Amino acid sequence: MPVKSFLAQTRGKNGPDIADWLSWFWLVFGTLLIAIPVAWAAISSLKQPAEITRFPPSFVPTAPAQVEVAGYDRPLGLWEVNIDGNTEEMALVRRIGIQASMVDPENPEETVNVPTSDIRPLLELSIAASNYTEPLERFNFLTYFKNSVFVTTVATLLTLLLNAMAAFALSKYRFRGRNAVFVLIISTLMIPLSVVMVPAFLVVVGLNLMDNLWGVILPTIATPTGVFLLRQYMLTIPDELIEAGRIDAASEFRIFWRIVLPLTAPALAVLAIFSVIWRWNDFLWPLIVLIRPENFTLQVGLNAFKGQYQVQWHYILAMTMLSLAPVTIIFVFLQRYITAGIANTGIK
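The line above is the sequence of Alpha-1,4-digalacturonate transport system permease protein; the predicted structure tokens follow.
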């Protein structure tokens, strides 16, 4: 459907009614609620460190204008100075308490002391590209990125396979206790992560998977949400298709692989999106399992920019924007399956 025709649709016969206006208001409000923080983080990632914490904040990346002054080794910042009701552009030499020492760039021999309340910085557009380039040069960002891609890709593939096999057994096989097993799996959703974290850690230690990416992957591949989502979708697949495959002497695995999985593609795409978001954004479990920096995932690596006394927000924001790119790309390609996948899982 063309975008123009879609936007022109109304519930009212003679034009938009109250339901249409409320729907548009809610859609616009929800979009802004999600988009504004992301846009603000993207803009702030291009600001100088001092500009990120400046109040009142500026929407565009700016920095104090600087000028070369004779007799000084480094450029000085330009400020607007109010002297006897007149506004002049002067360079700041130093600031001590509530007094600022200023000089005229054209006449640097004479220094003027003025109250800091009478000066205001001259700002100009400044794109801090170094926020992106310096972490790539000074830190192991590419190593963290590679580890996150490996963990996310492998964990997602194993999650899809394992949950699909469990969902196939719970939806297409008749055996005693099937419903009890399904209820038991769903009931694990009520168990907090903090309860299973210590037992999972002891299992990882016992399997000698500490400080290993597989120790991050394996404990997270079985998810009750995935089993529920895929089982509810597989219940909509006619049993006659499976019986036809058995009549043709197809093995159970071949029926699962060649018949059931292709028909479950929309639900698999939904679970893939969820799994990528879960694994890519996971911080606590990799922080517990991984020790050496060369094994850190991206989210754990970003924590290196936070020191005991100082937080390098300009680096964190820049690397966060880079870390959002893969998830956004995957969502763009798979988002058309979300509605179809969820609508057929029994969540209505």
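Note on the example: The longest strand covers residues 86-96. Strands lie at 62-64, 66-67, 76-83, 86-96, 99-104, 107-115, 119-121, 123-125.
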